[in-house]
Specification:
alpha+beta, five-stranded mixed β-sheet, 12 strands, 38% helix, binds 2'-deoxycytidine-5'-triphosphate, binds magnesium ion
Length: 348
């Protein structure tokens, strides 16, 4: 089945938000970043880009290239807020969303049936809504892979939409410069140029053996990408809601003390599972579960930030006191809060 992937990327994100909020800046070259003598440009608007200003450039140099540039300090809290608003628009189309940063995300809309299932219509819709509801422009790319969707969103920036239909993939990729391939940095680019390779068609002339010989494991990626093959799935950040362990006993436990005696072993096991799933920072609650001989079940829980032995003991006593029956199963677990993408700040 053909996949349908949309890649969205806001135009000059921080700068667009500042221009939205301060209309007097709209037709001025604008840089957002550190304004002190040693500050760095986080981003700049497209007018400033005409002067050669770009992200990661020292602000002092930006001022030399463009003496009229207006420098504004970033307001990250505000950009996070805008990012949330955009995420919420995106989530009207699909749950399969992979945010890459505050201003960029992949959407897998292969199985979405709104707007006649057309990824192109969805991308148009998203762009129009972000502009109307958020007040900034966003570029989008539509293709059957993450690689090409991302290349496409960049193709007609700013405020552009590029769709690469499945039938166009081969010809699009043939002309694509290898510098556009994800993972091809300056060094690889230089080596490819030395092999006489500028575009993907030229790269396609090399066998997989030649490429792995020269580039190791990345050679295989190159072999696939230069043909437009990229099977990477869109990965959502949605994690599990809870992690638990439980034991059913051969012989029912009678009274609270034999139950409490099981606790250290259960905690040890739970601890390992939480650690393996990399979720210890997401713990919101811990709970205990008792199943009695008549198969009735009860749970007790408390708010914690990390596994707490004393609180587990209290939960055992609480749950255990709810029945006089013997216990056939004991379980403990943690409930996890939603991971917050706004805590992972690529650029802070
Ligand atoms: N950013 C940053 N430092 C960098 C690169 C980016 O602080 N070296 C921040 C500012 C950008 C935001 O991240 O506004 C998004 O990064 P992009 O690479 O998407 O750049 P822009 O959205 O600013 O511009 P473009 O229109 O090219 O996407
Ligand atoms: Mg951007």
């Amino acid at each position: 089945m053909q996949r349908k992937i949309i890649h969205c990327d806001c135009d000059s994100f921080y700068a667009s938000v500042e221009m939205r909020d301060r209309p007097e800046l709209r037709d001025k070259p604008l840089a957002v970043g550190g304004t002190s003598g040693r500050g760095v440009v986080a981003t700049c608007n497209y007018l400033a880009r005409e002067f050669g200003v770009h992200s990661a450039m020292p602000m002092a140099q930006a001022l030399k290239l463009c003496p009229d540039i207006v420098a504004v300090r970033p307001d990250i809290a505000k950009y996070k807020q805008v990012s949330r608003q955009i995420q919420s628009i995106l989530s009207d189309y699909t749950d399969i969303i992979e945010p890459l940063s505050l201003d960029e995300a992949f959407l897998d809309v292969s199985n979405v049936d709104i707007l006649q299932g057309s990824a192109t219509l969805m991308a148009q819709h998203i762009r129009a809504r972000v502009e109307a509801e958020v007040g900034i422009t966003i570029s989008a790319g539509v293709a059957n892979s993450k690689f090409l969707a991302k290349v496409a969103s960049d193709w007609q920036k700013p405020n552009g939409l590029t769709v690469i239909a499945p039938s166009q993939v081969a010809s699009f990729v043939a002309e694509l410069e290898v510098a556009k391939i994800f993972g091809v940095g300056k060094v690889t680019q230089q080596r490819l140029y030395e092999m006489g390779v500028v575009n993907c068609q030229q790269l396609q002339q090399f066998s997989i053996y030649q490429l792995t010989d020269r580039f190791g494991k990345f050679g295989q990626r190159l072999y696939e990408l230069c043909r437009g093959i990229d099977e990477r799935p869109v990965k959502t950040l949605r994690l599990r809601k809870s992690i638990s362990v439980e034991h059913t006993f051969d012989k029912n436990l009678i009274g609270i003390n034999p139950c409490l005696a099981q606790l250290p072993g259960l905690i040890e096991e739970l601890h390992q599972r939480v650690a393996r799933s990399n979720s210890s920072h997401l713990i919101a609650k811990q709970f205990a579960k008792f199943k009695f001989e008549d198969f009735t079940t009860t749970t007790a829980e408390s708010v914690v930030a990390e596994l707490d032995i004393e609180k587990f003991e209290a939960l055992f006593k609480k749950a255990g006191s709810r029945s006089v029956k013997s216990v056939r199963l004991l379980g403990i677990g943690v409930r996890l809060r939603e991971p917050n993408i706004y805590q992972y700040d690529l650029f802070e």
